[in-house]
Design a protein that fits this description.
This protein is α+β, with helices and mostly antiparallel strands. The protein contains two helices and three strands; from the N terminus they run αβαββ. The chain has one domain. The radius of gyration is 11 Å and the shape is globular.
């Protein structure tokens, strides 16, 4: 399951193709997400998931349509 910083679940939006998920925290991944957002006139935000111990951790970037 994927979440926003505000703990809003975005998993279904990703599955329906309404939000694109870029997994990774590297500069390259961030640039790829920002370029995609610019191309479609959107924005980026950090995406979170729960790790094996149940803590919420950043997994990458999401771009909504």
């Amino acid at each position: 399951m994927y979440y926003t910083k505000e703990r809003v679940e975005i998993t279904k939006r990703i599955e329906k193709g309404l939000t694109k998920l870029f997994i990774g925290m590297s500069v390259e991944v961030r640039n790829e997400a920002e370029n995609h957002a610019k191309d479609i006139g959107s924005y980026t935000y950090e995406s979170y998931t729960d790790n094996e111990s149940g803590k919420r951790v950043v997994i990458g970037f999401a771009v909504p349509r």
